[in-house]
Amino acid sequence: MAQPAIIELKGVERHYQQGERKLIILSGADFSLKRGEMVALVAPSGTGKSTLLHTAGLLERPDGGEVFVAGRACGKLGDDARTAIRRNEIGFVYQFHHLLPEFSALENIVVPQMVKGLSRAEAASRGAQLLDYMQIGHRGNHRPAELSGGEQQRVAIARAVANAPQVLLADEPTGNLDPKTAHYVFDALEALVRQSGLSALIATHNFELAARMDRRVTLADGKVVPL
Ligand code: ADP
Ligand code: MG
Asked: Where does the record place the ABC transporter domain (predicted)?
């Protein structure tokens, strides 16, 4: 039997009420991310990329339709079950790094692992490995404010995969970086995803980076369509 997609959206609806007006962002959106696949989500600002990623990553509940993670329907699950799936299976990278400002780079990667139950020593060992892999091992003791934008995003990527998720969802992860830095950060992200067999859905405005992924999708009339 074919393996289920790691993430699947079926007929997803997402609407916002803005005063009198109903904004229809996702309307019958279908999308399937296969295991090991890297997909770019390329669409103009305001079309619903973040909404799609948050819905796929169980950060928001859809108004209709269903989201499956590793074949499991998540709509009727309670918040605790959804949080557990998110913690174990899904890594999220934002445009702004969202690192904890009072903690060092390494501690930012250690904390989520300890929340999951690893000892500090185990978590620190994996954290150091990940920082090395992202080529910022020498910056582990620095706080986010002491790091460059590119370094902050590399730490954020390392943190997102700290608990060995099956899928990485990245919302314009290089959107705040200059083109050259964006390229380096993206190289590191791509190498990490390919090497670990992760699946990834990455929202980006960068066509050159999008061209390197397995396929590209966009949003049109609230649906996910090939680009
Ligand atoms: P993108 O990431 O592609 O820029 P978003 O998913 O952030 O798009 O937003 C899509 C649309 O939904 C935008 O018009 C945005 O203003 C609107 N929107 C997003 N979140 C909310 C919210 N919580 N309440 C009302 N409108 C929202
Ligand atoms: Mg967005």
From this structure: 7-227
